[in-house]
Amino acid sequence: MTKNIFYEDLQDAGKFKQLEKRLLGESNLPGPRANLGAASTFADAFGSDWVTGDAWELLVEWSSRAEADAPTDDPREFLPFCALQAMGTYYRYADSSRQQIILERCQAAMNDSRWRMREAAAMALQRIGEQDFGALRSLFDAMMGKASALEKRAFVATLAHPPMLKDAAHVLYALELSEHILDEIAEGKTRYGTEDFRVLSKGLEYALSVFVERAPEAGFRMLAKFAVTEDKRMQKIVKSNLGKARLAKKYSQDVERIQLLMNA
User: Fold this and answer.
1) Are 59 and 42 in contact (CB under 8 A)?
2) Which secondary-structure segment (H or E) carries 100?
3) Which three-class secondary structure state does DSSP give residue 18?
4) How many CB atoms neighbour CB 54 within 10 A?
5) Average pLDDT for consecutive 10-residue bins of the chain (264 residues)?
């Protein structure tokens, strides 16, 4: 197996400044799309139990950089973006105290004002979930009762990850969690009209179709439940998912049935 290109630099704390300069140079920032390939390769370098104390402290330091030190669309933002994903990879090999820090950093990033850091949180959690779905489920269940709109968005964005949805039980959990979130919106427990709600709604407008595609019976039953509401917020979410090709092409009859319910 080819050795990770970041491995040597991560073995020697004396090379961390050089490593930082390299990542900043490869960030593709400012720009619309960060260098996801470089971030993924860096994160992959933490996929073993070799991680030194210095390398762990590097992740802790980088992941804690706030917007003032790593502004949106600035090359410096790429460092916490990479570090959080690396923490997700390392979770499996970390001791319990480090695992707790990793989950705390992910939760903080879910609420970050920087959209790219919110994406990093979901990507890190996906790495955790691929290795240990139980840990992911325990985290989300513990948070759900008091979860913010941005945290709920992180839940569905994380779960809408095909490699984690090969297990039918994982898909059903994603649908159950999504239905709970939708119920709270319908009951007025989620503040409407805020930017945070807009972000949550955007997430729900695509993620549900990913889950429904893999469990159509339960999934379309859930969409039908919210299709009959007069709540325009809910109608927008349902309509958007019905329009996704993964449902419209594969389950055209079910989609038409739900559309008829909405127009009744």
Assistant:
1) no
2) helix 96-110
3) helix
4) 13
5) 78 94 97 96 93 96 97 98 98 97 98 97 98 97 96 98 97 98 87 87 98 98 94 93 97 96 84
End-to-end CA distance of the chain: 59
DSSP for 106-122 reads HHHHHT-SSHHHHHHHH
Gyration radius (Cα) of the chain, Å: 20
Number of neighbours of residue 107 by Cβ within 10 angstroms: 18
Q: In 3D, which of 197, 200, 136 has the Cα closest to residue 163?
A: 136
Question: Tokens at residue 231, please?
Answer: 């709540």
| Distance in angstroms (rounded) separating the CA atoms of residues 243 and 257 | 13
Contact 109, 118 (CB under 8 A): yes
Q: Specify whether the CB–CB gap between 184 and 190 falls below 8 A.
A: yes
Q: Which two tokens stand for residue 186?
A: 């319908």
Q: CA-CA distance, 227 to 244, in Å (whole number)?
A: 16
Question: Which of 80, 51, 48, 77 lies closest to 64 in space, CA to CA?
Answer: 80
Q: Tell me if residue 95 falls in helix, strand or coil.
A: coil
Q: What is the structure's pLDDT at 55?
A: 97
Closest CA to 69 of 125, 11, 112, 129: 112
Residue 30 preceded by cis peptide, ω within 30:
yes
- Token couple for 60: 């802790």
Q: What is each CA distance from 148 to 33, 65, 94, 117, 143, in whole angstroms?
A: 26, 22, 27, 16, 9
- On the CB side of 24, CA atoms within 13 Å amount to 12
